[in-house]
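Researcher: We are triaging several targets before committing to wet-lab work. For this one, the compound of interest is zinc ion. I'm pasting the protein sequence and the ligand SMILES. What I need is the predicted three-dimensional arrangement of the protein with the ligand bound, expressed as structure tokens, so it can go straight into our comparison scripts without reformatting.
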Amino acid sequence: MTQIQIIAKNPLWNSRDRYKVHVPETHTYVGEQLSAKGADPVCLSVADEGEFTERKIARKDVLSCKQYRESDPVEVEPERHTWIVDDDIWVIRDNGNWSCSCWGFYFHEKCRHVREYKAKWKDENHG
Ligand SMILES: [Zn+2]
């Protein structure tokens, strides 16, 4: 289900002086689009909004419209550590996957270097 977010001008904004309560300049609506593309008014389903199940918004009042996501995905920095053990031996921890450049690791996918650094890693900072 694709939800869209519409920011619309509040039709009451122009006559806000007549109200005792605060009249916001814009309203933000999130819902499923019910009307066809380009239709006027734009019709949104707004299931969570009190007594209304849908909301009609005059196209001229629409200030912006975009796809809505609960939370934009957070980019996670890839976690990568490299330890130089020797001139041509280095141990890499790449998002939790350990590897080593030595022949032992190449053939057996384990070696004393990884074992050693794994143990250190655990002791030092990661319980
Ligand atoms: Zn190794």
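Researcher: Any quick observations?
Model: The longest strand covers residues 26-33.
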